[in-house]
Amino acid sequence: MQKKETDLSSFNNSWYKTGASAFARIGWYFISAAFFKSAFPINSIKISLLKMFGAKIGKGVVIKPHVNIKYPWRLTVGNHVWIGEHVWIDNLADVVIEDNVCISQGAMLLCGNHDYKKTSFDLITGNITLKKGSWVGAKSVVCPSVIVGNHAVLTVGSIATKNMNDYTIYQGNPAEAVKERIIS
Questions:
Q1: Which helix (H) or strand (E) holds 1?
Q2: Which pLDDT band holds residue 58 (cuts at 50, 70, 90)?
Q3: Are 178 and 170 spatial neighbours (Cβ–Cβ below 8 Å)?
Q4: CB neighbour list of residue 122: distance below 8 Å, 6 or more residues apart
Q5: Residue 27, helix vs strand vs coil
Q6: Cα–Cα distance between 149 and 16 in angstroms, integer?
Q7: What is the DSSP letter of 74?
Q8: How many degrees, rounded to 5, is the angle at CA 145 between CA 37 and CA 132?
Q9: Looking at residue 8, what DSSP letter applies?
Q10: Contact 112, 90 (CB under 8 A)
């Protein structure tokens, strides 16, 4: 029996809508390059620009240099959130980051994937939610459709492929619960 093969020429994501006009996407491309993906240091300007492009941003949010945000109009950030250097928020779907969340350096929030079972390698998207007080460790990855529970921790270099329980520390690839998070 002949096995089927991936055929990227048949890829079609015409069903996917970014949620903004081509003009907004082009504008964001240049703003993002100048103020977010760069070493630009002034946080208040970054916050204002995100809001201008439709993001909902709380107070006390810190966004470090070299952060990549795909679509600000699909981003909601609560109060007192820290977003570290080289974080990539690839929000092809909605990303909600609740209050007091820390996203450490080089972490990735990936809302898109591909259906490897189809020859056309179809796009799959899913929302991501980081609940209050959660911590996404450096160089870790949160995959599409994952909810990181209240005060949960995804340790350095780990990959969350499924929902994470409240007050639980996860580690590994795929990330597994290793112990309870106790905050003193």
A1: none
A2: very high
A3: yes
A4: 11, 12, 13, 114, 115
A5: helix
A6: 28
A7: G
A8: 70
A9: G
A10: yes
The closest alpha carbon to 69, from 108, 124, 105, belongs to: 108
Query: How far is residue 149 from each of residues 92, 143, 167, measured CA to CA in Å?
Result: 21, 14, 7
Provide the pLDDT for residue 120: 96
CB 165 within 8 A of CB 152: yes
| Tokens at 91, concatenated | 């929000």
Cα Rg for the chain, rounded, in angstroms?
Answer: 17
CATH for 21-180 (2.30.40.10, 1.10.1410.10, 2.160.10.10, 3.40.50.10140):
2.160.10.10
Q: What share of the chain is helix, strand, coil (3-state, %, to 5)?
A: 15, 30, 55
- Within 10 angstroms of residue 162's Cβ, the number of other Cβ atoms is 12
For 107-137, what is each residue's pLDDT tens digit? 999 999 999 999 999 999 999 999 999 999 9
Average pLDDT over residues 45-51: 98
On whether the CB atoms of residues 106 and 142 are closer than 8 A, the answer is no
Domain ranges for the chain, please list them: 21-180
**Residue 162 — φ and ψ, nearest 5°?**
-145, 165
pTM for the whole thing? 0.97
